[in-house]
Automatic annotation (TrEMBL):
Sequence intervals crossing the membrane: none
Record keywords: ATP-binding, Nucleotide-binding
Gene3D superfamilies given in the database record: 1.20.120.1080, P-loop containing nucleotide triphosphate hydrolases
Presence of the UniProt keyword Repeat in the record: no
Keyword flag Membrane: no
SUPFAM superfamilies linked: P-loop containing nucleoside triphosphate hydrolases (SSF52540)
One Gene Ontology cellular component annotation held by this UniProt entry: catalytic step 2 spliceosome
Protein name as it appears in the record: Pre-mRNA splicing factor
Residue intervals of the Helicase ATP-binding domain: 47-208
Biased composition range(s): Low complexity: 22-33
Top-rank taxon: Eukaryota
């Protein structure tokens, strides 16, 4: 049983909290009618602000109607063309669009629609489009002044994602050229001053809306820190279920494994409940799920006697209204990814107070609520940072820079970055990477390949692989398309590490590595009529594979569009290379054009792999066909798609293939490596030398 004790929350206005944390008692209207939300009482102030200045910074507590009402107010009040509203996450772009459509009683995709990467639901009548900042940025490539739009709302600006920050910089430039464009920057928990200073010279109004009527959210903290937050989450959910009145629960954990484990524990506990007791309707929510599975959190539970429990990552943190959520359980942690040149650091760290407030704000949206914070009040007040660390400080900037270049923004230092600007070192390493990927030339000018890469909805290294596949000597476009769309979705296998799945996976598994295994799965799915029944038989996830098929279709359409001006490219997504004898080799070589820095070397004496770049020991992820297996005889080098440093500082590599010959590297990325052959042989008997001078003997 739990050892923790609750004390009543003291997070109330007038306590020792700073201004931003006042909203930890989220201010919600007492009526569920949208027209009585606080934002409506400020309607005239909003419209007036926008008629005087092009930029409006709007701060209003969670639940006041920023996400779902503001675009509607602007639409109703006559902004002539489309209103864009960006949401940091795909799921909230979809859910907000559905909510607003249903308020208008119009089908999703008519007056109100959404567009996110790989998915669009709009029509010629659409006047309000919810989208991710990345989608709008990519739209700028073809329409730099965003002429389709009359207003752009950048919602949840506190999130400080790199794409939303860059979008603000781009919008700052656009409003100077387009006098009729209006920009609203909104959030419940942003640092208003920072954004006001950023837009100061462009004409900005700051509007802070107070709560009006509200539903209270009572906040409770732990008296003592807990040791195991997953166990504490399970205990707390269980205690709510047994002791607290009716109402659904939303709990935050940091990742898929924790979520699955918590749900499993809750499901086991239910078995001991008496038959008459109310059951839990258990649902996971994380970015690894398909859109269809993610949206399963919205409907009411199948029976009214059931209590819905959603256990989510921070994707449920902002902009989401789950009808019926009364209780929020917040572990106070989040998983972040800091991208490195080869290895990404995945860390679990404390959330900011802004995030804690957003999380609490998921309760009490349609009735009073309670938030259980699994940390002490002292941690909240003294240890948590006020707001999130901007992503620009911890992410690989190559795709951002590629995008800016394709928008004609060449002087990256002069670009108006929302502070803090990226460091010169980060900018330089991103430029170097883009140069190796042939997206920019020796004078850092964008190439045609780079232009296409920026349009493709793929990270630059994968976009490069796709474009390489349509050139000599690779010519394996069809296969690479299938592999890339499989890499773009989450694992297609159910419970990828279970013995049963491993068995099924073996029937698809290719000696040569995981990329061909992915290709085998994709081809088998297509050959077997893309049937759900066939998927179930092989423990494959039908919706994940269907999504892969749809992504492939979209990538194909990009290639078709490029083909009209594609000198030197053989953009033939339909013709398979597999009939030719050296197809596998060509596919692997082609993958190297994007994955070239990701090399590891097998050491037969220790039966382990080390990274070529740093000599660091790495572990093959259990989902790989190379897990617990040596590379084929005589082969020592492998290439991988992803390396992550996770718990206990272990680095895992996933999606691998064997590198047959070090010379492949030379042809794939000329100038990056030198190969020195010592014994005159191939098959890895040699050493590779990074041209920067660092040697890697074997
Ligand atoms: O963005 P903000 O937090 O200011 O509010 P919102 O997401 O626009 O939602 C405003 C209010 O609308 C919520 O507090 C709910 O009362 C209601 N709402 C709802 O009932 N169902 C939804 N799907 C969305 C919003
Ligand atoms: Mg919102």
């Amino acid at each position: 049983m739990s050892t923790s004790f609750w004390k009543p929350g003291s997070a109330r206005p007038g306590s020792s909290l700073d201004r931003s944390s006042e909203a930890s008692s989220p201010l919600i209207t007492s009526s569920s009618s949208p027209n009585t939300l606080p934002i409506h009482s400020s309607r005239l102030a909003i419209l007036h602000a926008l008629s005087s200045n092009p930029i409006l910074i709007l701060s209003a507590p969670t639940g006041s109607g920023k996400t779902t009402q503001l675009p509607l107010i602007l639409h109703t009040d006559g902004y002539p063309s489309i209103i864009a509203c960006t949401q940091p996450r795909r799921l909230t772009a979809i859910s907000s669009a559905s909510r607003v459509s249903s308020l208008l009683s119009s089908p999703l995709g008519s007056t109100v629609g959404y567009t996110i990467r790989f998915e669009t639901n709009t029509s010629s009548e659409t006047s309000i489009i919810y989208m991710t900042p990345g989608t709008l940025l990519r739209e700028c490539i073809r329409d730099p002044l965003l002429t389709r739009y009359s207003v752009v709302v950048v919602d949840e600006a506190h999130d400080r994602g790199v794409e939303s920050d860059v979008l603000l910089g781009v919008l700052k430039k656009v409003v100077r050229k387009r006098k009729d464009l209006r920009v609203v920057v909104s959030s419940a928990t942003m640092e208003v001053e920072a954004f006001r200073d950023f837009f100061e010279e462009d004409g900005v109004t700051v509007l802070q809306i107070a709560g009006g009527k509200k539903f209270d959210v009572e906040v409770a903290y732990l008296k003592e820190p807990c040791e195991d937050y997953v166990r504490e989450t399970v205990e707390t959910i269980w205690r709510i279920h047994t002791d607290e009145p009716q109402g659904d629960i939303l709990a935050f954990l940091t990742g898929r494994d924790e979520i699955d484990s918590a749900l499993q524990q809750l499901s086991d506990r239910q078995l001991d409940l008496p038959a008459s007791a109310a059951r839990l309707h258990l649902l996971p929510l994380h970015s690894g799920l398909s859109t269809e599975d993610q949206t399963a959190i919205f409907p009411l539970p199948p029976s009214r006697a059931m209590r819905k429990v959603v256990v989510a990552t921070n994707i449920a943190e902002a902009s989401i209204t789950l009808d019926g959520i009364v209780y929020v359980v917040d572990c106070g942690l989040v998983k972040t990814r800091n991208s490195g040149e080869v290895v990404d650091d995945v860390r679990v760290e404390a959330i900011s107070r802004a995030s804690a407030i957003q999380r609490a704000g998921r309760a009490g949206r349609t009735r009073p609520g309670k938030c259980f914070r699994l940390y002490t009040e002292e941690v909240f007040l003294k240890e948590m940072r006020r707001s999130s660390i901007p992503e620009v400080q911890r992410t690989d900037l190559s795709s951002t820079i590629l995008l800016l270049k394709s928008l004609g923004i060449d002087n990256l230092v002069k670009f108006p970055w929302v502070p803090p600007a990226p460091t010169a070192k980060n900018l330089a390493s991103a430029l170097e990477k883009l140069h190796t990927l042939k997206a920019i030339d020796d004078h850092t000018r964008l190439t045609t390949t780079g232009m296409w890469m920026s349009e493709l909805p793929l990270p630059p290294h994968l976009a490069r692989i796709l474009l390489s596949s349509a050139t000599e000597p690779f010519l394996c476009c069809s296969e690479i398309l299938s592999i890339l769309c499989m890499l773009s979705v989450t694992s297609a296998f159910f419970a990828p590490e279970s013995a049963e799945t491993q068995l099924s996976k073996r029937s698809f598994s290719a000696q040569e590595g995981d990329f061909l295994t992915l290709l085998n799965v994709f081809l088998a799915f297509s050959r077997n009529g893309r049937s759900r029944k066939w998927c179930n038989l092989h423990r494959l996830n039908f919706s994940v594979l269907s999504r892969a098929v749809s992504i492939r279709g979209q990538l194909e359409r990009y290639l078709e569009r490029f083909s009209s001006s594609a000198e030197g490219y053989h953009l033939q997504p339909k013709s398979s290379a597999l009939r030719t004898p050296d197809a596998v080799e060509r596919i692997h070589k082609c993958l190297l054009t994007g994955l070239y820095p990701n090399l590891a070397r097998y050491n037969p004496s220790t039966l382990s792999y080390t990274l070529s770049a740093s000599n660091q020991l790495v572990h093959v992820h259990p989902t790989s066909t190379f897990f617990n297996r040596q590379p084929p005889h005589g082969k020592r080098w492998i290439v991988f798609a992803e390396a992550t440093r996770a718990r206990e500082d272990k680095v895992y590599i996933r999606d691998l293939c064997v590198l047959d010959d070090l010379d492949w590297l030379i042809s794939a990325v000329p100038g990056v490596y030198k190969v020195e052959t010592r014994w005159g042989g191939t098959g890895g008997k040699g050493s590779i030398v990074h041209t920067s001078g660092e040697g890697d003997d074997m």
